[in-house]
Amino acid sequence: MTTTSTEAVLAVSGLATHFKPSRRARRRGAGVVHALCGVSFELAERETLGVVGESGSGKTTLLRSILGLERPTAGHVRFSGTDLSQLRGADARRFRTHMSVVFQDPYTSLDPRMTVADVISEPARIQRVPMPTSRLVELLDQVRLPAASMDRFPHEFSGGQRQRIAIARALALDPRLIVLDEPVSALDVSVQAEILGLLRDLQEQRSVSYLFVAHDLAVVADLSHRVGVMFGGQMVELGTTSQVIGSPHHPYTQELLSAVPIPDPRAERAKPRTLTRAWPTDDSRPAPCPVGEIL
Ligand SMILES: Nc1ncnc2c1ncn2[C@@H]1O[C@H](COP(=O)(O)OP(=O)(O)OP(=O)(O)O)[C@@H](O)[C@H]1O
Ligand SMILES: [Mg+2]
What we know:
The protein is of the alpha/beta class. It has a domain at 8-98 and 178-185 and 208-282: P-loop containing nucleotide triphosphate hydrolases (Rossmann fold). Helices cover 34% and strands 22% of the residues. The strands form two sheets. A six-stranded mixed β-sheet has the order 6-7-8-3-9-10, sandwiched between helices. A four-stranded antiparallel β-sheet has the order 2-1-4-5, with helices on one face. The structure holds adenosine-5'-triphosphate and magnesium ion. The site of magnesium ion has 3 residues, from helix 2. The site of adenosine-5'-triphosphate has 12 residues, from strand 2 and helix 2.
């Protein structure tokens, strides 16, 4: 896969997000959680950057910090050159229409009391943008759902269909960036493939970039032009998908790759096993985040 433009839609530099422990957690001796420490990368127009990493490595915090749902402790998020932390009120709200999000669980991310039409038009309602029925039909068509779906409720749909509804909602304001947090993890493997195919087709039809988080390196590799590997709040490896998969540089990436099953049993048995967290040199460990620093 290649990208068609080098213009950075999103530029993240030195992004750090730390969480203060609650008073109760402090009493138990908990310190500041350095969920994200100094992450930097750029995302080009129509590019997909896949982010992998173990549970707790900071993937969701990265997405939430970019979307403005968490307040970063340090660093910058620039969208088409504009520093989002400098925008206030209506400007910030308007700017955020260029980004949307799809969450992991289509069972909890859609309000069961809303019809599909209400769900999809919610972002437009918040931004006070009209959403005519013809546009709803078009959005449903883009995610391959019939127009009649709009008067039904989310519980009447399967997990894959619900995720299509969530994608239609994410497309509603014609964003330039869609952030997807484990969008297929809750789905069966065959449905996963359908949703990944849909996302790929949508990117070909429109000028949208994806920042795509998943646990599963195989799923990420399927959709992404480049892959970033998170470990301990840092992006320890970032490269093209073939670089990261073909010649992983960081020991944690090597470990992740060795955990991906290969369909051929002989090749699977012959695969090197590096599941030991045996970091070859101290240099490959992420530098620890500064302790106690919170803004
Ligand atoms: N609001 C919060 N308050 C305190 N700690 C938090 C908060 N949100 C996240 N964390 C901590 O930050 C770290 C990173 O969490 P995050 O949810 O970003 O990980 P993740 O990589 O998305 O994990 P998973 O793959 O399980 O979704 C974890 O140690 C988590 O407990
Ligand atoms: Mg997460």
